[in-house]
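Section handout 9: paired folding examples.
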Amino acid sequence: MAGTFVNLPNISIYKGFTKTDGITYPATTESSDGKTRITTTTTSIEFNPVLTDNDWKTP
């Protein structure tokens, strides 16, 4: 049956909080649906970048 969704819980654990430009964020996120687990690690981040007209041009 197309479009069937399974309602599984999704749990995320945030840790390794760090601060950049006065903003605190988790450097590591562990997520799980009860069967599969994934860990993501932020290695760099940029807040409020200055955008120019060039950034909005169609590629």
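Moving on to protein 2 of 2.
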Amino acid sequence: MVSLNPVRVLKNEAEEEKAEIARMSSFIGAIAIGDLVKSTLGPKGMDKILVSYGRNAGNVEVTNDGATILKSVGVENPAAKILVDMSKVQDDEVGDGTTSVTVLAAELLREAEKLIEQKIHPQTIIAGWRKAVEVARHALQGASQDNSADDEKFREDLMNIARTTLSSKILSQHKEYFSKLAVDAVLRLKGSGNLSAIQIIKKTGGVLEESFLDSGFLLDKKPGMHQPKRVENAKILIANTPMDTDKIKVFGSHIKVDSMAKIAELEVAEKEKMKDKVNKILKHNANVFINRQLIYNYPEQLFADAGVMAIEHADFDGIERLALVTGGEIVSTFDNPELVKLGQCDVIEQIMIGEDILLRFGGVPLGEACTIVIRGATQQIIDEADRSLHDALCVLAATVKESRIVYGGGCSEMLMACAVNEAAQKTPGKEAVAMEAYARALQQLPTTIADNAGYDSAQLVSELRAAHVQGKTTAGLNMNTGKVGCMKELGITESFVVKRQVLLSATEAAEMILRVDNIIKAAPRKRTEDRGMC
């Protein structure tokens, strides 16, 4: 008799999951990630505490930002990693909707799992989804409004978007105050959308409502000893150069000396070399010198003698933003003063925030430049406030670029779900079943928002669906009263760009995971084999 042993194609350490097992593994991983962040969705969503281990052991973050949670959680499952990457792209692209996009993708896969159990082929499901997403996008675009022609109405739209974005964040108690702060900052950009002109400084102490917007640029540094503390009509030389004792470099050699006097001569030579460097810098006729690296005592003294304000160790993010707002260039060599573009501003002065002294650059050439100073009781509160404000600023900047708005509170999702259901009724074949599943997944977003607030989601969502079928296209969930209300009257507005991105990203990610029928874990290459092959 011949024994039939299974033929092994892959190396010993390599693993392979096939067909149903692979698909189940993908679904379980993706749905688990969706369930992880689902409880943070909506204005009554809960927060997560993230505790670091390893190098940053003991670091604690409190957040309900989907991208931050998923970025901090290490995941092994390949499908889960796809959703984590997708939320990161959503955060980079439009700044908000990171939780919504993850929950929608997970709900799509939950529906797909049920359809596959009914022996519907994945490609049929994908074909139905593609029709559904097209219908949903058209419905969303048809329901969107554009008030950019009327400045007063557009500002109110931006305020409503900021309020809606911040209502699910830590700043929800002060959303009126911070919405105005964010809208003022974004409108200063004059439509450029260049968020790097808005600097955020975090200072512990005080309360959140003591945060403020400063029309200048703030640098968390102090000038050197005995140097001017206030400079008017500042000409700023921005540099990234070593200003420690410049060593006489004799590569590959040892220097032997036979007396202490010779060492003193070497030190004098080093001092002279630094003095030459400072003189080259002074030839630029700048009255302010800002360096990314340290400035040691001797060059600091030389700058003080010349009446120049010298600021050391300006972090690179700060120095790049400073170059942008003052119109200067970052230089590393000083041989050609005529080729260097100096930064300018009307006045540089010291201001106090809490117990800290900062430098304020007033009247910078880039008029839209401003700084938001966030105050708060603890570092965790300030960090979460920073993340919340960043989301609001990103959404507002995206809305200024593409000014369409849609209504929130589950209104847009239900509108799209009803449109998809209507289209499914006119579609023959199994694709109609996939389209209905797509509509159910969309309805899970308002369901989750209601669940997180402790309301009866089945009752509320059925009422919301009925309202939309009756033609009340502005109906959504009022989370304060736990009833269906008019989103237009309540001013619950969201950016069209964010909603569209959520719809498309979630569908693409779910489609990619649904296509998988094999997971192959490649065998690691062994070092001994590599050596043998060389």
